[in-house]
Design brief:
Number of strands: 9
Mean pLDDT: 95
Strand order of the largest sheet: 1-2-3-4-6-9
Low-confidence stretches: none
Oligomer: single chain
Length: 257
């Protein structure tokens, strides 16, 4: 599909694997590539369920916030609007998606994991909405999708502390549906997808559409708000300090400015 993606099909289950460096960072372009793959598989009637996995030890480290102009394209323009338009495309596809989470899912990586209907995690998996540690606002629709999965209280705890949630706690929250040994994560996700794909495909898609009714539109509205807040906070000293602190592996010294 692209230099970052590979797709294989076994029976009625397609597996999409994303690999981009050690942290599997996402960008507007790569989320668009993932959306292209999902839409192509949506159009293939032989495919009834998808597995999404990534290469390496990290599921997805989110967006790359290093450099002088984070979240900017090669022309220095913000790529966030296009990133979020492509995220909405992911939520708009029809077929069930099982995420295989072998390691950390951070920031936009957590948002990507929440695209799935289900998440199979390794004990090594960690889920983190770490935006506030950067002096930043959550994005990728997480302020809508996370409470939808784990409830308002658990979502608030994750969003306002930025803490890393271990796989065992993610299972308790409902953020992970299964926790299996690391070496079995992808195969377990494929087994769950195959269990779904064994059922009548029109009935599965109709039921999923009812369960996820208006989800894509809700994510679109929420990302519009999240982006406005991100644009505002990126102009603050606290955001600059947060990025610097993460790069230096220390706590931020925030000044409310």
């Amino acid at each position: 599909m692209s230099e970052h993606l590979s797709v294989s099909i076994d029976g009625h289950v397609a597996t999409v694997i994303y690999t981009r460096g050690a942290a599997n960072f996402v960008s507007a372009d790569t989320v668009g590539e993932i959306a292209d793959a999902f839409e192509a598989l949506d159009a293939d009637d032989s495919v009834r369920a998808l597995v999404f996995a990534t290469g390496g030890k990290v599921f997805c480290g989110g967006a790359d916030l290093t450099g002088d102009k984070p979240l900017a394209d090669e022309n220095g323009e913000s790529e966030t609007p296009r990133l979020y338009r492509n995220a909405v495309r992911l939520f708009s596809t029809r077929k069930p998606v099982v995420m295989a989470v072998q390691g950390s899912a951070v920031g936009a990586g957590l948002g990507l994991a929440l695209v799935g209907d289900f998440r199979v995690a390794a004990p090594e998996a960690r889920f983190s909405a770490s935006f506030v540690t950067l002096g930043f606002h959550a994005g990728f629709g997480i302020t809508h999708t996370l409470p939808r999965v784990v409830g308002e209280q658990h979502a608030s705890l994750m969003l306002l502390t930025g803490r890393r949630v271990k796989a065992e706690d993610a299972l308790r929250y409902g953020l992970a549906d299964e926790v299996v040994p690391l070496d079995d994560v992808r195969a377990a996700a494929q087994r769950l997808a195959a269990e779904i794909a064994a059922n009548a495909p029109l009935a599965v898609e109709a039921t999923r559409a009812t369960m996820r009714a208006e989800l894509a539109e809700a994510v679109r509205r929420r990302t519009d708000h999240e982006r406005a807040e991100q644009d505002r906070l990126m102009q603050t000293a606290d955001f600059r300090e947060g990025i610097k602190a993460v790069g230096e592996r220390r706590a931020g010294n925030f000044v409310r400015g």
